[in-house]
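Entry:
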Amino acid sequence: MEHTGDNIRIRNAAYYHPQHVVDNDYYLEHFAALGKDIKRFLEVMGREQRYIINNSHENALTMGYEAAAKALAEAGLQGEDLDMIVFASQTPEYTYPTNALLLHHRLSGKHRTITMDSNANCAGMVTAVEQASRYMQANRSVRYALIVGSDYSSINCRTDDEITYANFGDAAAAVILERTPEASGFMDSLYYTDSGLWEGITFPACGLSGIYRDGLTPEDIRLRWIPFDGSVCVGAAIHDIKELLDRHGLAAGDISAFCLSQFSLKNIELIREGLGLEAEASAGKFIYVGGEFGYTATSSPFIAFQRGVEEGSIQRGDYVIFWSVGAGWQIPTMLYQY
């Protein structure tokens, strides 16, 4: 069945996080016992607290389900209305069956539903929304698509690594895309890839084929993060945002919200400066939730987006930039009119 309309817009979004909160004091004390003072690091990253799973029944799949169920309820839709489900994660609960299939089961989806998992690391949900939007433009039988981004990162961090253990939080976000005849929605995107730094972040550290090796310890498996200059991606972000705006005759000041990776508050400030936007004049445009949530990886730009909707800084018709960065590097930038 073909559905009318050629534009793909965000109908609504939702997020979910665990209830357990861990603030900076815990990490300051933890790393002080290891001989490390991480106070300045936490200030640069913009951390105050983070939501952390502290039980055995929550994971990336359960968090994704909670976010999806909330998004569907708020949209007045049910699982059987969905024509496509995409689950984006770098910490999937299962590699088979797909988490999208399990989400389909929990949501009582119909048989005629496209289900697939995707992984572009921390850039995964921006990538999944961009890819689903373009697919929907090409396949008019898809009216509603559910995109879920969820990472249970805290469990995979080495407890002696402040860059990950003190930085990451656990959360999920869900976005419902819909076909519409209205003149709004997905506009354009760009990708930037530089694979030269691929060894900087690896998980499992030993490689998936090595996890059964004799003598392996948990630390051989957990996330390996070799320190590097995290601002290395800022130049590409500024260039690609400007290029997207130029393509569509827009200026940075025309954008109502920049929903960027929440990895580092400093990076967001550098991007704002690189776009020539003053801090006071652009107050509220660069939405930052990393102080509350920690770094939630793939979901972070869309938690920022939904927070902007909730607080009224993002309204229908507004132009929104989504940007994120995945290990390696893979950097998607996307322009939407909400």
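Residues 7-183 form a domain with the Peroxisomal Thiolase; Chain A, domain 1 fold (CATH 3.40.47.10).
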